[in-house]
Amino acid sequence: MTEYFISYSRSDQAFALRFAQDLKNAGVDVWVDQFDIPIGQNWDRSVEAAVRDCKGFVIILSPRSAASEHVADEVACALEGNKHIIPILYEKCTIPMRLARLQFIDATSDYDGALARFQLIVRGAPDASGSAVTAPAVSVSSGASVGPAKPAVRWDPALLAGAEQHLARHVGPIARLLVSKAAAAATNEAELYERLAHAVPDATERADFLRKVAGASVGTEPNGSPRSASADEFSRAISEDLLNRAGEVLIAHLGPIARYVVMNESREARSPEDLFQRLLVRIPSEKEKVELLRKLRSLGA
Predict the structure, then answer these.
(1) Sign of torsion over alpha carbons 199, 203, 207, 208
(2) Does one domain contain both 182 and 282?
(3) Which residues pair with 86 in a beta bridge?
(4) Which helix (H) or strand (E) holds 7?
(5) Which residue range(s) make up the domain with 83?
(6) C-alpha span between 84 and 19 (Å, rounded)
(7) pLDDT tens across 219-228, in order?
(8) Angle at 109 between CA 104 and CA 115, to 5 degrees
Protein backbone atom coordinates (compact mmCIF):
# COMPACT_ATOMS: atom_id res chain seq x y z
CA MET A 1 0.00 0.00 0.00
CA THR A 2 1.33 3.42 -0.97
CA GLU A 3 1.48 5.77 2.00
CA TYR A 4 0.48 9.13 0.46
CA PHE A 5 -1.09 9.99 -2.90
CA ILE A 6 -0.39 13.53 -4.16
CA SER A 7 -3.20 15.26 -6.06
CA TYR A 8 -2.53 18.51 -7.94
CA SER A 9 -3.41 20.58 -10.96
CA ARG A 10 -1.06 20.11 -13.91
CA SER A 11 -0.54 23.88 -13.84
CA ASP A 12 1.04 23.47 -10.40
CA GLN A 13 3.29 20.62 -11.54
CA ALA A 14 6.59 22.31 -10.67
CA PHE A 15 5.61 22.77 -7.02
CA ALA A 16 3.91 19.37 -6.71
CA LEU A 17 6.86 17.45 -8.15
CA ARG A 18 9.33 19.36 -5.99
CA PHE A 19 7.25 18.59 -2.89
CA ALA A 20 6.94 14.92 -3.89
CA GLN A 21 10.65 14.57 -4.61
CA ASP A 22 11.66 16.22 -1.34
CA LEU A 23 9.38 13.84 0.55
CA LYS A 24 10.82 10.85 -1.32
CA ASN A 25 14.33 12.06 -0.49
CA ALA A 26 13.28 12.20 3.17
CA GLY A 27 12.07 8.59 3.02
CA VAL A 28 8.33 9.27 2.84
CA ASP A 29 6.48 6.87 0.54
CA VAL A 30 4.47 9.04 -1.88
CA TRP A 31 2.72 8.38 -5.18
CA VAL A 32 2.58 11.00 -7.92
CA ASP A 33 1.48 10.40 -11.49
CA GLN A 34 4.58 11.84 -13.18
CA PHE A 35 6.83 9.44 -11.24
CA ASP A 36 4.72 6.36 -10.75
CA ILE A 37 2.61 5.62 -13.84
CA PRO A 38 4.60 3.32 -16.16
CA ILE A 39 4.75 4.07 -19.86
CA GLY A 40 1.76 2.55 -21.65
CA GLN A 41 -0.48 2.30 -18.58
CA ASN A 42 -3.97 3.82 -18.60
CA TRP A 43 -3.73 7.13 -16.71
CA ASP A 44 -7.29 7.24 -15.29
CA ARG A 45 -7.22 3.65 -14.05
CA SER A 46 -3.76 4.04 -12.56
CA VAL A 47 -4.78 7.18 -10.67
CA GLU A 48 -7.99 5.64 -9.36
CA ALA A 49 -6.18 2.51 -8.22
CA ALA A 50 -3.52 4.59 -6.47
CA VAL A 51 -6.10 6.70 -4.62
CA ARG A 52 -8.02 3.63 -3.48
CA ASP A 53 -4.83 1.89 -2.37
CA CYS A 54 -3.15 4.78 -0.52
CA LYS A 55 -3.09 5.35 3.22
CA GLY A 56 -3.34 9.14 2.98
CA PHE A 57 -4.31 11.71 0.37
CA VAL A 58 -2.40 14.96 -0.11
CA ILE A 59 -3.99 17.73 -2.17
CA ILE A 60 -1.98 20.73 -3.39
CA LEU A 61 -4.45 23.62 -3.07
CA SER A 62 -4.41 26.54 -5.51
CA PRO A 63 -6.98 28.37 -7.64
CA ARG A 64 -6.21 25.89 -10.44
CA SER A 65 -6.66 22.72 -8.40
CA ALA A 66 -9.80 24.12 -6.73
CA ALA A 67 -11.33 24.49 -10.20
CA SER A 68 -10.03 21.20 -11.65
CA GLU A 69 -12.56 18.45 -12.37
CA HIS A 70 -9.81 15.83 -12.32
CA VAL A 71 -8.71 16.91 -8.85
CA ALA A 72 -12.36 16.98 -7.70
CA ASP A 73 -12.75 13.39 -8.88
CA GLU A 74 -9.65 12.34 -6.96
CA VAL A 75 -10.89 14.11 -3.82
CA ALA A 76 -14.27 12.41 -4.13
CA CYS A 77 -12.59 9.02 -4.43
CA ALA A 78 -10.45 9.75 -1.36
CA LEU A 79 -13.44 10.87 0.69
CA GLU A 80 -15.37 7.79 -0.36
CA GLY A 81 -12.47 5.64 0.84
CA ASN A 82 -12.19 7.52 4.17
CA LYS A 83 -8.59 8.43 3.47
CA HIS A 84 -6.54 10.67 5.76
CA ILE A 85 -6.62 13.93 3.78
CA ILE A 86 -3.88 16.53 4.21
CA PRO A 87 -4.38 19.77 2.23
CA ILE A 88 -1.23 21.75 1.37
CA LEU A 89 -2.02 25.38 0.58
CA TYR A 90 0.27 26.36 -2.32
CA GLU A 91 -1.58 29.54 -3.31
CA LYS A 92 -4.45 31.23 -1.52
CA CYS A 93 -7.78 30.22 -3.01
CA THR A 94 -11.41 29.45 -2.22
CA ILE A 95 -11.13 26.01 -0.68
CA PRO A 96 -13.66 23.49 -2.06
CA MET A 97 -16.60 22.94 0.27
CA ARG A 98 -15.76 19.30 0.93
CA LEU A 99 -12.32 20.31 2.21
CA ALA A 100 -13.17 23.61 3.89
CA ARG A 101 -13.50 22.10 7.38
CA LEU A 102 -10.16 20.31 7.22
CA GLN A 103 -7.09 21.88 8.77
CA PHE A 104 -4.29 22.50 6.32
CA ILE A 105 -0.57 23.17 6.04
CA ASP A 106 0.24 26.62 4.68
CA ALA A 107 3.12 26.54 2.20
CA THR A 108 2.43 29.96 0.69
CA SER A 109 5.34 31.67 2.45
CA ASP A 110 7.41 28.95 4.13
CA TYR A 111 8.08 25.92 1.93
CA ASP A 112 10.66 24.34 4.25
CA GLY A 113 8.37 24.80 7.24
CA ALA A 114 5.47 23.17 5.39
CA LEU A 115 7.68 20.25 4.38
CA ALA A 116 8.82 19.81 7.98
CA ARG A 117 5.26 19.98 9.35
CA PHE A 118 4.14 17.34 6.86
CA GLN A 119 6.94 15.03 7.99
CA LEU A 120 6.00 15.56 11.64
CA ILE A 121 2.48 14.42 10.79
CA VAL A 122 3.46 11.25 8.92
CA ARG A 123 6.35 10.18 11.15
CA GLY A 124 5.01 8.84 14.43
CA ALA A 125 1.92 11.06 14.43
CA PRO A 126 0.05 10.46 17.69
CA ASP A 127 -3.26 9.77 16.01
CA ALA A 128 -4.88 9.06 12.67
CA SER A 129 -8.06 11.01 13.20
CA GLY A 130 -7.92 12.57 9.75
CA SER A 131 -6.98 16.06 10.93
CA ALA A 132 -3.75 17.48 9.62
CA VAL A 133 -1.71 20.00 11.57
CA THR A 134 -3.19 23.39 10.89
CA ALA A 135 -1.19 26.24 9.45
CA PRO A 136 -2.08 28.90 12.05
CA ALA A 137 0.64 29.20 14.65
CA VAL A 138 -1.49 28.28 17.65
CA SER A 139 -3.28 25.21 16.33
CA VAL A 140 -2.42 21.64 17.27
CA SER A 141 -3.76 18.19 16.54
CA SER A 142 -7.00 17.59 18.37
CA GLY A 143 -5.66 14.46 20.03
CA ALA A 144 -8.76 12.48 19.03
CA SER A 145 -8.08 8.79 18.55
CA VAL A 146 -9.83 5.53 17.87
CA GLY A 147 -9.56 2.46 20.04
CA PRO A 148 -9.15 2.09 23.81
CA ALA A 149 -8.73 5.24 25.89
CA LYS A 150 -5.17 6.03 26.90
CA PRO A 151 -4.36 5.85 30.60
CA ALA A 152 -3.88 9.23 32.24
CA VAL A 153 -0.28 10.25 32.80
CA ARG A 154 0.79 11.82 36.09
CA TRP A 155 2.93 14.61 34.74
CA ASP A 156 5.60 16.32 36.80
CA PRO A 157 4.27 19.91 37.24
CA ALA A 158 7.80 21.24 36.77
CA LEU A 159 8.07 19.48 33.41
CA LEU A 160 4.79 20.97 32.19
CA ALA A 161 5.75 24.40 33.48
CA GLY A 162 9.03 24.19 31.60
CA ALA A 163 7.30 23.13 28.39
CA GLU A 164 4.85 26.02 28.75
CA GLN A 165 7.68 28.47 29.36
CA HIS A 166 9.55 27.44 26.23
CA LEU A 167 6.43 27.23 24.06
CA ALA A 168 5.21 30.68 25.17
CA ARG A 169 8.24 32.24 23.53
CA HIS A 170 6.87 31.09 20.18
CA VAL A 171 3.08 31.24 20.53
CA GLY A 172 2.40 33.58 23.46
CA PRO A 173 -0.13 33.18 26.32
CA ILE A 174 -2.02 30.39 24.57
CA ALA A 175 0.90 28.09 25.44
CA ARG A 176 -0.77 27.14 28.74
CA LEU A 177 -3.88 25.87 26.95
CA LEU A 178 -1.82 24.00 24.37
CA VAL A 179 0.27 22.29 27.05
CA SER A 180 -2.87 21.32 28.94
CA LYS A 181 -4.43 19.74 25.84
CA ALA A 182 -1.24 17.97 24.81
CA ALA A 183 -0.69 16.60 28.32
CA ALA A 184 -4.22 15.19 28.37
CA ALA A 185 -3.58 13.25 25.16
CA ALA A 186 0.11 12.27 25.31
CA THR A 187 1.39 9.10 26.98
CA ASN A 188 5.07 10.06 27.32
CA GLU A 189 7.40 13.05 27.07
CA ALA A 190 8.37 12.41 23.45
CA GLU A 191 4.73 12.44 22.38
CA LEU A 192 4.02 15.51 24.50
CA TYR A 193 6.78 17.52 22.85
CA GLU A 194 5.89 16.29 19.36
CA ARG A 195 2.33 17.52 19.87
CA LEU A 196 3.52 20.89 21.15
CA ALA A 197 5.99 21.24 18.27
CA HIS A 198 3.02 21.14 15.88
CA ALA A 199 2.01 24.53 17.24
CA VAL A 200 5.23 26.19 16.06
CA PRO A 201 4.93 26.82 12.30
CA ASP A 202 8.43 28.09 11.57
CA ALA A 203 10.94 25.25 11.09
CA THR A 204 13.82 27.13 12.72
CA GLU A 205 11.73 28.12 15.74
CA ARG A 206 10.35 24.59 15.99
CA ALA A 207 13.86 23.16 16.12
CA ASP A 208 14.79 25.73 18.76
CA PHE A 209 11.77 24.75 20.87
CA LEU A 210 12.58 21.04 20.63
CA ARG A 211 16.23 21.65 21.48
CA LYS A 212 15.30 23.65 24.57
CA VAL A 213 12.70 21.26 25.93
CA ALA A 214 15.10 18.37 25.34
CA GLY A 215 17.72 20.26 27.33
CA ALA A 216 15.24 20.94 30.11
CA SER A 217 14.36 17.25 30.31
CA VAL A 218 17.87 15.86 30.05
CA GLY A 219 20.27 18.34 31.58
CA THR A 220 18.55 21.30 33.23
CA GLU A 221 15.63 22.22 35.39
CA PRO A 222 12.74 24.14 33.72
CA ASN A 223 14.15 27.41 35.07
CA GLY A 224 17.42 26.75 33.23
CA SER A 225 19.55 25.87 36.27
CA PRO A 226 21.74 22.74 36.09
CA ARG A 227 20.16 19.52 37.30
CA SER A 228 22.07 17.15 39.53
CA ALA A 229 22.98 13.99 37.65
CA SER A 230 21.93 10.68 39.13
CA ALA A 231 24.30 7.77 39.67
CA ASP A 232 22.63 5.99 36.77
CA GLU A 233 23.34 8.89 34.43
CA PHE A 234 27.00 8.94 35.44
CA SER A 235 27.33 5.22 34.82
CA ARG A 236 25.49 5.26 31.49
CA ALA A 237 27.42 3.43 28.76
CA ILE A 238 26.56 5.96 26.04
CA SER A 239 28.74 9.02 25.72
CA GLU A 240 27.37 12.52 25.28
CA ASP A 241 29.36 12.84 22.07
CA LEU A 242 27.74 9.73 20.62
CA LEU A 243 24.27 11.02 21.51
CA ASN A 244 24.98 14.33 19.76
CA ARG A 245 26.29 12.60 16.64
CA ALA A 246 23.37 10.15 16.59
CA GLY A 247 21.01 13.12 16.76
CA GLU A 248 22.73 14.72 13.77
CA VAL A 249 22.37 11.50 11.76
CA LEU A 250 18.72 11.05 12.73
CA ILE A 251 17.74 14.58 11.67
CA ALA A 252 17.85 13.47 8.01
CA HIS A 253 15.21 10.85 8.81
CA LEU A 254 12.98 12.49 11.45
CA GLY A 255 13.56 16.21 11.13
CA PRO A 256 13.83 18.65 14.08
CA ILE A 257 12.46 16.18 16.64
CA ALA A 258 15.48 13.90 16.13
CA ARG A 259 17.70 15.19 18.92
CA TYR A 260 14.92 14.94 21.47
CA VAL A 261 14.10 11.38 20.35
CA VAL A 262 17.75 10.38 20.84
CA MET A 263 17.88 11.88 24.33
CA ASN A 264 14.57 10.32 25.31
CA GLU A 265 15.47 6.84 24.08
CA SER A 266 18.93 7.02 25.66
CA ARG A 267 17.35 7.04 29.12
CA GLU A 268 16.26 3.43 28.73
CA ALA A 269 19.03 2.18 26.43
CA ARG A 270 21.69 -0.03 28.04
CA SER A 271 24.27 0.23 25.24
CA PRO A 272 24.86 2.08 21.97
CA GLU A 273 23.46 -0.87 20.01
CA ASP A 274 20.36 -0.92 22.20
CA LEU A 275 19.90 2.80 21.51
CA PHE A 276 20.28 2.27 17.76
CA GLN A 277 17.62 -0.45 17.73
CA ARG A 278 15.24 1.79 19.70
CA LEU A 279 15.73 4.59 17.16
CA LEU A 280 14.97 2.26 14.25
CA VAL A 281 11.43 1.75 15.58
CA ARG A 282 10.70 5.35 14.53
CA ILE A 283 11.53 4.65 10.87
CA PRO A 284 8.72 3.20 8.70
CA SER A 285 10.79 2.13 5.67
CA GLU A 286 12.83 -1.07 5.91
CA LYS A 287 15.31 0.27 3.36
CA GLU A 288 15.71 3.46 5.38
CA LYS A 289 16.18 1.45 8.57
CA VAL A 290 19.10 -0.42 7.02
CA GLU A 291 20.69 2.84 5.89
CA LEU A 292 20.17 4.48 9.28
CA LEU A 293 21.58 1.53 11.20
CA ARG A 294 24.68 1.54 9.00
CA LYS A 295 25.22 5.25 9.68
CA LEU A 296 24.67 4.87 13.42
CA ARG A 297 27.05 1.93 13.76
CA SER A 298 29.71 3.86 11.86
CA LEU A 299 29.69 6.40 14.69
CA GLY A 300 31.26 3.86 17.05
CA ALA A 301 30.76 3.70 20.79
Answers:
(1) negative
(2) yes
(3) 58
(4) strand 4-7
(5) 4-102
(6) 18
(7) 444 444 434 3
(8) 55
